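Example 3.2
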Amino acid sequence: MSIFRRAILLLLSLAATVATRAGTYSGEPGPFKVGTLEQTWHDSKRNRDVPVKIYYPLSPADGSRPAFPVIIFSHGLGGSRDGYGYLGQHWASCGYVSVHVQHLGSDTEALRGARPMQNFKNIASNPANAINRPLDITFAIDRLTELNGVPSFPLAGRLNLAQLGVAGHSFGAFTTMAVAGARIPVLGAEPRFLDPRIKAAIAMSTPANPNSDTDAAFDGVRIPVFHMTGTADGLSRASKATGDAIVGDTTPAQRLLPYKHTRGAPAYLLVFAGGDHMVFSGRLVGSRPTDKVFEASVCRGSTAFWDAWLKGDVSAKHWLGDGGFASAVGKAGTFEHKP
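Structure, written as C-alpha cells:
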C-alpha cells in the first residue's frame, strides 16, 4: 500500500471517529420527571433570608434514590427564584438538581414602587447587592451541604455536591464569575469570593467592568466556563438608565471579553445571531420567533457542558469540541472553544 493511500485511509478513519463521537450525543431533554421544592433559608451571619426554588429529578420507579450533581442558578437584576424555569426543568430532566436562588435587594420585589427606573438605578449601583450575591451562592452551598444530611429534608442524601456547578444571567453572570475567581473591582482587588467547591460555570451576558479587558481579570478563573451572549446583547432602553452602575452599560463586543481573556482554564463561547440581552431569560412578555430556537440551543449546549465537566461524560465533551454542537446551532449563531 502506498504512503499516499495510507494517509488517505488515516484521514478517513479520523473523520469517521470525529463524526461518531459528535453523533453519540444530543443534549435533548432527559428521562426524569421533574419535581419542585420552595424554601427560604436564613443566613444568621448576615441576618439575611435566601429564598430558593429547587428543580429535581423524581425518584426512579425502581425505588432507588440516586444522588445527582447540583447546579446553583443566579438570576438577573429584577429577577426571582421563579425565573429561568425552562433551564431548571431541562437540567432536572437530565439528572441534575437545579437550585434557583433569589437575591433579596436586587430581585423583583426591590423594583416595586412608584419610580421603577430610579429603583433600577439604585439597585444596580449599590455595592451591597454586588457583595451579597456571591455570598448568597456560598451560603446556599453551605446550606445544601448541611441539609443533605438531614433526614427530614426531601432531598437528603440525593445531592452530589462533589459535582457542583454555578450559572447565572446578567447580574447573575457577574455573580457567577465572582465565585469562579474573576477579579471585579467593586469586590476588591483579589478574587476573595472564589468558592473552590465549584467545578464548572455558565455565564450568560456577563456585564463589563473597568477591569474586563485584561488577562489579569480572569487569571483567577481555573474552572471551565461556558460563556453565552448575542450579537445584539447590549442594554435595553430601560437599563440604560443605570449610568455608572455596577451592572452598567455593556456592548455586545464587551460580552466577549471574559472568553477572550481566559488563559488558565477551558472556555466555551456561544454567540447567537441577533440575540438580545433577554434571550436567556425565558421571557413571557415580548417574546420573539427566535426565542425558542435560542432556548433549545442553550438547553442542549449547557447540558452537554455539565455532562462533560460535572459527570465526566466523554461523548458530551467530544460533541462540544468536535463540531457536533456547532452543527446543531447552525445558522442561529456561532460556537467556539479553547482548551
